[in-house]
């Protein structure tokens, strides 16, 4: 039985203006993770990711590093109940 997982991530550091969201979309789609990513007015990036537990864990690992121009200082993870309402992974807002 495949375990499904849903997390909300708040990524801090140099994560805006470095194409973090667009690289996150590509990585999530590659892993088969669904949800969204957006910039927040406080300079962080927020993402909601769900899918198979191993894929979501891999996406969280990628978010701790980010794309080449980013400098991730931290990732706050909040776990919630799997919803299954997303069909893809997109930039919102």
Automatic annotation (TrEMBL):
Domain Acylphosphatase-like: 6-93
Pfam families (alphabetical): Acylphosphatase
Signal sequence, renumbered to the chain: none
Active site: 21, 39
Keywords, comma-separated and alphabetical: Hydrolase
Coiled-coil annotated residue ranges, if any: none
One MF annotation (Gene Ontology) recorded for this entry: acylphosphatase activity
Keyword Cytoplasm: no
Taxonomy, superkingdom: Bacteria
EC id: 3.6.1.7
PROSITE patterns according to UniProt: ACYLPHOSPHATASE_1 (PS00150), ACYLPHOSPHATASE_2 (PS00151), ACYLPHOSPHATASE_3 (PS51160)
Catalytic activity: an acyl phosphate + H2O = a carboxylate + phosphate + H(+)
Family: Belongs to the acylphosphatase family.
Protein name per the record: Acylphosphatase
């Amino acid at each position: 039985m495949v375990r499904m997982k849903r997390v909300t991530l708040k990524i801090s550091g140099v994560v805006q203006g470095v194409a973090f969201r667009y690289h996150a979309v590509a990585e999530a789609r590659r892993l088969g993770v669904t949800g969204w990513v957006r910039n927040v007015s406080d300079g962080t990036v927020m993402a909601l990711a769900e899918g198979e537990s191993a894929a979501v864990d891999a996406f969280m690992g990628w978010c701790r590093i980010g794309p080449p121009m980013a400098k991730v200082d931290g990732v706050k993870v909040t776990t919630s109940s799997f919803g299954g309402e997303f069909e893809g992974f997109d930039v919102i807002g």
